[in-house]
UniProtKB/TrEMBL annotation:
Gene3D superfamilies: 2.40.128.200. Residues 33-94 form the C-type lysozyme inhibitor domain. Keywords: Lipoprotein, Membrane, Palmitate, Signal. It comes from Pseudenterobacter timonensis. This is C-type lysozyme inhibitor. InterPro entries: MliC, MliC_sf. The lineage of its organism: Bacteria, Pseudomonadati, Pseudomonadota, Gammaproteobacteria, Enterobacterales.
Amino acid sequence: MKKSLIFALPFLLAGCSYYNQFVERMTTDTLEYRCDEKPLTVKLNASQQEASFIYDNKLLNLKQGLSASGTRYTDGIWVLWSKGDTATVYKRDRIVLNNCVLQNPKR
């Protein structure tokens, strides 16, 4: 009995890992924006309240912060602010991506 449990344990743990990855993918939305400067692809993870995107070949992971209107994600330097079908990206209070419009929004 103990030998079969020891043999099965790695498979059970691997199953948990795959389940967590499956749940992660199910709670992540990919949003495509067209901005004045260039396109922007944002991955939103609602369960972890995070947004991530690549800017200048750097992956940015931002946590949801306080916002009076719309939704705001930040890491203290970068800010992704969205409201409705539009978004703006700031770096240290300077706009780096402006007039971003969501492509194929869900209605």
